[in-house]
Write a structure and sequence with these properties.
The protein is α+β, with helices and mostly antiparallel strands and 272 residues long. It is built from 3 helices and 15 strands. The chain has a 9-stranded mixed β-sheet with strand order 1-8-7-4-5-12-11-14-15, with no helix packed on it. A hairpin with a 4-residue loop joins β7 and β8 (134-141). The longest helix has 27 residues, at 2-28.
Amino acid sequence: MPGCTRRLPLIAALLGIAFAVPAQAEEAYDPWPGLVQDIFNNRPINDGADVIGIEMPYRAEDAAIVPVTLRSKLSPADSRRIRSITLVIDRNPAPMAAKFELGADANVTEISTRVRVNNYTDVHAVAELTDGQLYVSKVYVKASGGCSAPAAKNAEEANNRLGQMRYRQFAREQVPASRIREAQIMIGHPNNSGLQMDQVTQLYIPAFFVNQLKLTQDDSPVLSMEGGISISEDPNLRFTYVSNGAKRIRAEAKDTDGHVFRNEWDVEKPGT
């Protein structure tokens, strides 16, 4: 017994090493280089500290609805503009959360939405400029389980609201005479990730989400989104743009089951 007692600390130490190595290896693994190859075809990506900003909470309150804001940091004197922004949540099952294409004349400088975060992870925002160059910024977010979290609404309620759109416009008090507008589009949709489990049947709910969204002022493009499973339930985009004098804002969304949803609003009376 005394011999066994003396060996216990050694055994415990060895077991600790055995269990610690995989955890350390997982923590040390960086998926970003592989994502650069898969998503951006290994194109060179420059430091984007002066080009694109990304804001997210360091520790998320709810991993299924984590707010994220993407903001242009280009100087007004810079003749280039941002053509597209790709949002990558490195450790999510489908890392490319969304790609936003910005209208050539809309001068979109800020986009906010809500995403699911499945693990502690880096989140990258990659901007492609009109000169063809890519620029990246990143933040680190502590959250887990967002992609498998149960839906906030039951299936019947979600189906009743499927495709319903709301459009809001916000006053910009600091520049009342400006053509810069701030608006929000909301779409009723469960945006199922394919990783959520039906609490009654204990079966996985098939992936079902909005994968395309296009916004125009009359027929001039403002913003489009190619979305994936990381966009939260009831997709929600808030953005700034420059008005071209159009009287109508139009939205068209499509989901992975082939549904097409359309709506339009009077810019001066956006309503619901």
